[in-house]
Design brief:
The protein is mostly helical. Helices cover 70% and strands 0% of the residues. It has helices at residues 7-22, 29-36, 40-46, 50-68, 79-95, 97-101, 103-109, 111-137, 145-168, 178-190, 201-211.
Length: 220
């Protein structure tokens, strides 16, 4: 018999599902309680307000990204690592897609979350730049420091705005799929196109082919 899931965990999971499906602004704590078949008072026993639920979800997303966006220990990076990072980014963005969809509203509504996000952004940019530098040092990417810094920033801009791009180009804003998200990861990889060392181009091209989704499939 499977162990009973704690009410607090059920609230967090249901909130994530509703936020992703409907957008955070369309979902209230009463909606979450009704979805779970519990009283609002029971929900408030665990979370004082919706901001606390969002903060817990962001902490989980933050921990997920921090967990995989790091250099491997005591070895050089390989093309397989590139696949790992891209697939891990795709999975994290898809699981917590509401955060990117409603990001500006979420940060404007909660100064504490905004401060946490700024720290997360600085740390993520630093980690991403270290990883790109690792690909340069392993000979997979050919670029100087200025190009490496620009690649990092441009990748961040694409990743943090891709879901909003999708929402503004579809008739139903929340009608998203993992395939559409995959095209966003492809766009990040495309930034590297002119910097792949010749010896690694065939392997990277196979990653391109796996990630590619026609742009018309991303529009409503």
């Amino acid at each position: 018999m499977a162990p009973r899931i704690k009410t607090r965990d059920r609230i967090v999971q249901a909130s994530l599902e509703l936020f992703n499906a409907q957008g955070e602004r369309s979902v209230t704590t009463n909606h979450i309680a009704a979805h779970l078949g519990i009283s609002p008072g029971n929900l408030y026993y665990h979370f004082r307000n919706k901001q606390e639920i969002i903060a817990e979800l962001f902490a989980a997303y933050e921990a997920d990204v921090d967990g995989f966006l790091r250099l491997p220990e005591e070895r050089a990076l390989t093309v397989d690592d590139k696949t790992f990072y891209l697939e891990a980014l795709l999975a994290a963005m898809w699981r917590y897609r509401f955060l990117h969809r409603d990001l500006e509203h979420l940060l404007d509504s909660d100064p504490e979350l905004a401060a946490t996000y700024r720290d997360f952004a600085r740390r993520t940019l630093a980690n991403a730049q270290a990883i790109y530098r690792g690909f340069v040092e392993s000979g997979i990417l050919l670029m100087n420091d200025a190009q490496l810094e620009s690649l990092t920033l441009n990748s961040w801009i694409i990743l943090t705005s891709w879901i909003r791009f999708l929402c503004t180009t579809r008739e139903v804003a929340g009608d998203l799929s993992e395939a559409m998200m995959r095209r966003g990861i492809y766009q990040v990889l495309a930034l590297e196109g002119g910097h792949i060392a010749p010896d690694f181009q065939p392997a990277v091209e196979r990653i391109f082919e796996r990630l590619y989704v026609p742009l018309e499939d991303c529009r409503g």
